[in-house]
Amino acid sequence: MYHPNMFESHHHMFDMTPKNSENDLGITGSQEDFETKSGAEVTMENPLEEELQDPNQRPNKKKRYHRHTQRQIQELESFFKECPHPDDKQRKELSRELSLEPLQVKFWFQNKRTQMKAQHERHENQILKSENDKLRAENNRYKDALSNATCPNCGGPAAIGEMSFDEQHLRIENARLREEIDRISAIAAKYVGKPLMANSSPFPQLTSSHHIPSRSLDLEVGNFGNNSNSQAGFVGEMYGTSDILRSVSIPSEADKPMIVELAVAAMEELVRMAQTGDPLWVPNENSVEILNEEEYFRTFPRGIGPKPMGLRSEASRESTVVIMNHINLIEILMDVNQWSSVFCGIVSRALTLEVLSTGVAGNYNGALQVMTAEFQVPSPLVPTRENYFVRYCKQHSDGIWAVVDVSLDSLRPSPITRSRRRPSGCLIQELQNGYSKVTWVEHTEVDDRSVHNMYKPLVNTGLAFGAKRWVATLDRQCERLASSMASNIPAGDLSVITSAEGRKSMLKLAERMVMSFCSGVGASTAHAWTTLSTTGSDDVRVMTRKSMDDPGRPPGIVLSAATSFWIPVAPKRVFDFLRDENSRSEWDILSNGGLVQEMAHIANGRDPGNSVSLLRVNSGNSGQSNMLILQESCTDASGSYVIYAPVDIMAMNVVLSGGDPDYVALLPSGFAILPDGSARIGGGSASTGAGGAGAEGGGGGEGNNLEVVTTTTGNNGGSLLTVAFQILVDSVPTAKLSLGSVATVNSLIKCTVERIKAALACEGA
């Protein structure tokens, strides 16, 4: 989303002109700075005239409507919280301040009260229904307990009058505890080698004679965290379902014993993989550990079987110390919503299909979940990897926890497997002062022949999906979370930010911006985007989305354009160039060469590149107005991002004063910067054992209308740069998309790419 006057030849595409005035930031914005959009707030034009006019004399014409501006809505909402029933004097004062008719204000408050009443009634109905269901279940339990009760004296059936209420309750609680003990004992028995029945598992390695009663897995989902029978974690605007969701169903009762057996074996394997060195992990000439696959299959003969033909092995191991305690780390990993948010650059879509166990003793120890997830690289040139797996959490001795994933491919209706996870996950060791040591293991088998040649070196080194990327992302996000929870404003923060609440609101808004960007930059098919089959360009992928009734996005038709290319410049130099406000005019076409000034700066990590900024673009043209840009830059060992979005001046004033950032409309654009894989980053462990799909197999990807750049591994540590724009091309969601809009977006992104290449080439000259 960009300012209209910056692209005058297509002014009709960028209808972004709200009525703003002088504001708390000391920024002068003309009445045509930005357009504030809210599809839900409309009122009649001149309602007072309509009301007073004789019905018989009213012209027979269609009523005209107009939308309230975002500022009007925010002011009305704020006043409603303090006074839902304003009197005539208050309504007149509001109408004068907001340039509305008193009757418009009156109607708005009437509608708002009706809406709140309906919401309250629905909420009360849900509570009453839930209480009713609980009482009915409790009643049935008491009936069952009474029917099975025996007299303590004679051993015969007990009469109801002979048993007190407390005694009845204790008997029921004892029965529940007995079932819980049976369940835990059944899972614990796996560690001492009691196997399952031979016909309970499709894997020949899991044959045995012991059977877990299916009732031991029929557990009610508890209240810990945000667990539910069907949890979904959608990053940004992901609403759709991909192929894996259409092909996978909830596991049957017959499958559950096998899932438990597989999870316990995977846990044992993960712990040994994380703690064992030579000969399982063998260092190479670059001091990078390589997984010895022959030793691996000798050490772990059970598991999910041999590697299928056509798949290539990837294994890596990485450790670090993060600024977060082990309890919060476990909750992030076991709550699908938090997991997909923290790792939004890696997890493009995640869903919990069924919770088999919620754990015991009020925590996640013993928790077992069947999940599906889609993993991505921030480029449309790298296909996503979809996995259907079980996640198991266990507390070990000496303050160590472990969370492991292992694929459940045998439960899929389709035998075709393009990616599967051998036991992968992390060990978390509790340290002092709220820190934790995390050791991460990633072990996958994948058919990556459709990866674009430009990204093959990166994927083959394990940096695209390996343990280093997971650990680096977790470390950076822990630092960001610690920064957002700071109760004071650090001295280094630059500032129109005057309160800790304003600081938190700005960081929350930036977090939503980053998540939204990540949802549109990769190759995921699980989003609300529609890829256009014909864009008139061979190197830019263009997608479209209709936005309606979402306060976090402007309503209308949005185009997302993305392209990836190689540039012979080190990733750090590219990152520093793109995040620097002083060099922005060299590549940002829509800022039209205006002077860019940083008005607010929040550091959210040890690296100075990890920060959130509020930028003001001062137009060099007196006929054009200023605009604000929210920007977050982040970097770690696996890659970097520079993400930004124009923001409404009045809305940003509300955020900086501690207001709710969820109603600020954003259309993020930005850059993802990755190493090209030719100069390996030191440390960690990796394996890229070749399978039936050779590393050089495949060509330019499947169905990707993107730029083909041929490079060699001797490119002196260049960068893989992905550029992605989201632009509102029509404020009417039902409008038809014009080819002119697509051509303009193509032209915009191509011109930006050329400017970046030229500017960096001049720097290196």
From TrEMBL:
| Location of region: Disordered | 13-71, 685-704
- The transmembrane residues are none
Where in this chain does the record put each Homeobox domain? Answer: 59-119
Which parts of the sequence belong to the START domain?
252-483
| Sequence ranges of Gly residues compositional bias | 685-703
- Entry's Pfam families? Homeodomain, PDF2_C, START
**Keyword set includes Transcription regulation:** yes
Full protein name: Homeobox-leucine zipper protein MERISTEM L1
Q: Per the UniProt entry, what species is this protein from, by scientific name?
A: Camelina sativa (False flax)
Write the lineage as a comma-separated list. Eukaryota, Viridiplantae, Streptophyta, Embryophyta, Tracheophyta
